[in-house]
Write a structure and sequence with these properties.
There is one protein chain. This protein is mainly beta. The protein has helices at about 55-60, 75-85, 100-125, 280-285, 325-330; strands spanning about 1-5, 10, 40-45, 45-50, 170-185, 190-200, 205, 215-225, 230-240, 245-250, 260, 265-280, 295-300, 305-315, 320-325, 345-350. Strands 5-12-15-14-13-16 form a six-stranded antiparallel barrel. Strands 9-8-6-11 form a four-stranded antiparallel sheet, with no helix packed on it. It has a two-stranded antiparallel ribbon with strand order 1-2. β8 (about 215-225) and β9 (about 230-240) form a beta hairpin. The termini are far apart.
Length: about 350
């Protein structure tokens, strides 16, 4: 029997080191038989006990002719490996993990992108890094001349010139709206009547959407009877109205004067178009061509209208511009105007050199 000098635990003779602390055991005592002992050892995360097998009588008997070879002294590590075969493998015995091939491929691709980006950034730098210093052989370039012009309004459209023509400063002038009218009489629609009061005078504007009344009137009509002749009956609250935008040209019946059916009561001019009359210098008139674009900004509403130059008198500088009808008349109510005659505003001409000198 052999004993651990540290923990005093007994072991069979074939044990060389203590299973608890690895201390070398004492030499076996001759003449003693092997005793049955239990010793703990670590296996798979649990503590188990092992039994030592007894040695045969022939081996421990005194004076026997048969001798067992002396036990080989093993290191504590070898002893633990021999008597703990089911213990967990050490980290050195585990298979080495290899870095996945995909990781190496990703690293290579990322490195290639970074290198390419650095080359691209530094490759775009100018050859002459010191751009602040002028080149010795550089020729001076002429700075383009910017011609001053009138500051445009915020809603002023951009004027496009032909690509083969040189743009000139925009000519501006003050213009006034004029109405193109067609005369039409206002006739009595009742058997007999009279004007109580005219609501307009000559030159006034008749706006059917805002001010459609021409006069207050008293009218008499015939009421057919079941038996006998018709009976004249006065109408109450009579009003003389007009359904189109127009300018009053004349009033043909005086107030309280009796009129009869079909008689002309007044003469109006129905508005068909709105024009702009403008006067410019003769030099500017030479550079404005008929058919060119013109823009009118009405002063009262600050609304912008598109137009086209109709006629140009180069001797006097008088110019007539026609506004677009789809802008003059409301789309939802074609008999309503968006702009009226005798309104002033600024006119801008899209001028080019195509008519210069002619």
């Amino acid at each position: 029997m052999r004993t651990c000098p540290h923990c005093k635990k007994n072991y069979p003779d074939e044990y060389g080191f203590c299973l608890d602390d690895g201390t070398p055991l004492s030499k076996p005592i001759e003449g003693e038989k092997t005793e049955l002992i239990k010793g703990p050892y670590f296996h798979g995360g649990t503590t188990e006990h092992i039994e030592a097998k007894p040695v045969s009588d022939e081996t421990v008997e005194l004076g026997a002719h048969r001798h067992e070879p002396a036990p080989t002294v093993a290191s504590p590590l070898q002893t633990l490996k021999a008597y703990a075969p089911h213990s967990a493998p050490k980290s050195d015995d585990r298979p080495q993990r290899r870095t996945p091939t995909v990781l190496w491929v990703a690293i290579a691709v990322l490195s290639t992108i970074v290198i390419a980006g650095v080359i691209y950034i530094f490759g775009l730098r100018p050859q002459n890094a010191n751009t602040d210093k002028p080149l010795a052989n550089a020729e001076p370039t002429a700075t383009p001349l910017i011609m001053a012009s009138v500051t445009p309004l915020p809603d002023a459209p951009q004027i496009a010139f032909p690509p083969d023509k040189t743009a000139q400063p925009i000519i501006t002038a003050t213009g006034k709206t004029e109405a193109e009218t067609v005369e039409e009489p206002v006739k009595a629609q009742y058997k007999r009547g009279s004007i109580s009061k005219w609501d307009v005078k000559e030159g006034d504007m008749v706006d059917p959407c805002r001010r459609p009344f021409l006069a207050s009137s008293k009218n008499v009509v015939d009421i057919q009877q079941a038996e006998g002749p018709p009976v004249e009956t006065p109408l109450k609250g009579g009003q003389l109205t007009w359904a189109d935008p127009a300018i009053v040209l004349s009033l043909d019946v005086k107030e309280d004067e009796t009129y009869y059916f079909g008689q002309r009561l007044a003469l109006v001019g129905n508005i068909k178009h709105i024009w702009i009359g403008v006067k410019v210098d003769r030099t500017d008139a030479m550079r404005i061509a008929p058919g060119s674009a013109a823009f009118f900004t009405e002063s009262q509403s600050n609304r912008l209208y598109d137009g086209t130059v109709d006629t140009v008198d180069k001797a006097t500088g008088d110019i007539r511009i026609k506004l677009r009808d789809e802008e003059v008349f409301e789309r939802a109510r074609p008999n309503c105007l968006t702009i009226f005659p005798n309104r002033s505003g600024e006119v801008r001409f899209a001028v080019s050199n195509i008519t210069g000198g002619k």
